[in-house]
Amino acid sequence: MVIVQSFNHGSEAVKHFEALPKTIFIMHTYIINASIQIIPIVEDKHPYEWVDEAIAIIQRSGIKYEVGPFATVLEGTYQQVMEVIHDVNEYLFQKGCEEWISNLQIQIRSKKDITGEEKTSKF
């Protein structure tokens, strides 16, 4: 469930957003998949160390995942996947990573699961 909160900024776009009726949207519970690639822009330690820590967050999440050389693929419900993506970025922030890029790809089907196995089993 996603609840949108209002911002206290004075921009016209935000004022327009705040004037819209507030609705709570619930994303379906079908399986989706996503990839996350973390690119630390740091000098404090080797970037792979930050990436390893991000992968540890994913491993502890309990979500299905596959680590690749350029990205990690996640598989679960929309809410589960987005929570892990949030947790990875929040961890990097809380641990003082100076700057990073989070590259994301997300595939969603409206009426049924989409799995990595389905997309790669023919190979």
Straight-line distance between termini: 36 Å
CATH topology: Alpha-Beta Plaits
Strand content: 15-25%
Instruction: Provide the structure class.
Output: alpha+beta
Please provide the count of β strands. 4
What does this structure look like?
- The protein has a single domain, classed as Alpha-Beta Plaits.
- The chain is of the alpha+beta class and 123 residues long.
- The protein contains four helices and four strands; from the N terminus they run αβαββαβα.
- Strand 2 (64-67) and strand 3 (72-77) form a beta hairpin.
- It is flat, with a radius of gyration of 17 Å.
- It has a four-stranded antiparallel β-sheet with strand order 2-3-1-4.
Give a brief description:
With 123 residues, the protein is of the alpha+beta class. It has helices at residues 12-19, 47-61, 78-94, 116-120; strands at 31-40, 64-67, 72-77, 100-107. β2 and β3 (72-77) form a beta hairpin.
How would the blueprint of this fold be written?
Blueprint (H helix, E strand, L loop, with lengths): L11 H8 L11 E10 L6 H15 L2 E4 L4 E6 H17 L5 E8 L8 H5 L3
Antiparallel strand pairs: 1-3, 1-4, 2-3
Helix pairs in contact: 2-3
What are its keywords?
alpha+beta; 4-stranded antiparallel beta sheet; disordered N terminus; 37% helix; 4 strands; 4 helices; single chain; Alpha-Beta Plaits; 123 residues
